[in-house]
Amino acid sequence: MKKYLRIFMIVVIAAIFIATFAFLYVKSQPKEIVYEVITPKVADIEKSTVATGKVEPRDEILIKPQISGIVEEVYKEAGEIVKKGEVIAKVKVIPELGQLNSAESRVRVADINYKQSLQEFDRQKKLYKDKLISKEEFEKSEVSMKTAKEELSSSKDNLDIVKEGITKNSATYSNTMIRSTIDGLILDVPIKKGNSVIMSNTFNDGTTIATVANMKDLIFKGKIDETEVGRISEGMPIKLTIGALQNLKFDAKLEYISPKGVTENGANLFEIKAAINAPSNVNIRSGYSANAEIVLEKVSKVLSVPESTVEFSGDSTFVYVLKTEKPKQTFERRQIKLGVSDGIKIEIKSGITAKDKVRGAVIEDKKPDAEENKK
Q: Range of 185's domain?
């Protein structure tokens, strides 16, 4: 019995040893790698860059008052269309006490002078009729009376302007009526009835009554990195994608490149502007974020391969060209000359032809001997 048990143990140990040896042998065999085989194709390739920015109207005007006072009425709201000269709001003048007192005093003095001149003129007129004075003296008194009358009228107009911001003779040109200076769309009306406003002058920008813009003439305003600004020029076509209108693309034309860059987050950026050609039936709002795709280089109907198939080594580039496919794939490393790349496809200028096949990504990784053992 012990003899049979010993033989059995020897057989088990031998089996384990053989199995371990076989396992290690299979593991030590080189793997057979199967690659995807790619045929070069004729294609159009564009190298482009993307600039981020926003859509703005070319002409955006801030309407400001020419007098200071209180907003008495607001006739327009944001989103309404206005014509040039149309009234947006009305401002009520709050007179400054010093100016008011001075204007009233001027009226009183002018009235006294006019009455005195008028009396003098009546006396001179009577004497002239009696031929007691010369015509020259009479004409001097007439001029003096007319001058005093004009001064009285001017002082009254000045008092009206101080008190009301308007004169009776120039009601249509009143500064109290704030009018649009262009045809366009009202983008914003930041004031409300009862707000105080300050006139625009050389020392103060003044309070903005409304923002009006011509929304039929839009531009894209964005920034581009200094590494790519040297490759673009005025007049280049642009494809514009607006974030709020993702299904639409618009044509634009580059018309401005800033001569001076600005540093943002460590990068030197240059401002660009492009005129947008938008259809009239599309409603584009001011301030929409947008991306501008600018084509830097473009080639048509050239031989190309996926850029992932190209090996870069220093200043040289290579691809692996298929020599045999069965029973085992073999490849030849071949130097090539490249052209334009869009990041996915790359132009092949020389080194391979359309009949060649190049090595792509790994599609299978197996051990042939292990597979045969399983069979």
A: 63-93+172-213
Q: Do 363 and 35 contact (CB within 8 A), yes or no?
A: yes
The reply to whether 3 falls in a domain is: no
Is residue 12 included in any domain, yes or no? no
CB atoms within 10 A of CB 180: 20
Q: Confidence class of residue 140 from pLDDT cuts 50, 70 and 90? A: confident
Whether residue 126 lies inside any domain: the answer is yes
Q: 346 and 204, same structural domain?
A: no
Cβ-in-10-Å burial (0-12, 13-18, 19+) of 32 comes to middle
Per residue in 96-119, is it b (16+ CB within 10 Å) or e — as a string?
A: eeeeeeebeebbeebeebbeebee
pLDDT at 3 over 60: yes
Amino acid at 39: T
Q: Write the pLDDT tens digit of every residue in 31-84.
A: 677 888 889 999 999 888 889 999 999 988 999 988 888 898 999 999 999 999
Quote the tokens at residue 175.
């500064």
Burial class, 132, CB count within 10 angstroms (exposed 0-12 / middle 13-18 / buried 19+): exposed
Tally the domains of the chain: 4
Give me the DSSP letters along 7-64.
HHHHHHHHHHHHHHHHHHHHHHSPPEEEEEEE--EEEEEEEEEEEEEEEEES-EEEE-
Encode 91-141 in three state secondary structure: EEECCCHHHHHHHHHHHHHHHHHHHHHHHHHHHHHHHHHCCCCCHHHHHHH
pLDDT for 362 equals 82
SS3 323: strand
In a shared domain, residues 326 and 350:
yes
What is the pTM (predicted TM-score) of this model? 0.60
Residue 370 has pLDDT above 60, yes or no: no
Q: Is residue 15 part of a domain?
A: no
Q: What is the mean pLDDT of the chain?
A: 84
Amino acid (1-letter code) at residue 284? I
Domain boundary among 256, 275, 298: 298
Residues 128 and 223 placed together within one structural domain of the fold:
no
Looking at the structure, tell me whether residues 305 and 285 fall in a common domain. no
Task: Indicate left, alpha or beta for 165 from its phi (over 0: left) and psi (-120 to 50: alpha).
Answer: left
CATH assignment at residue 323: 2.40.420.20
182 and 165 in a common domain: no
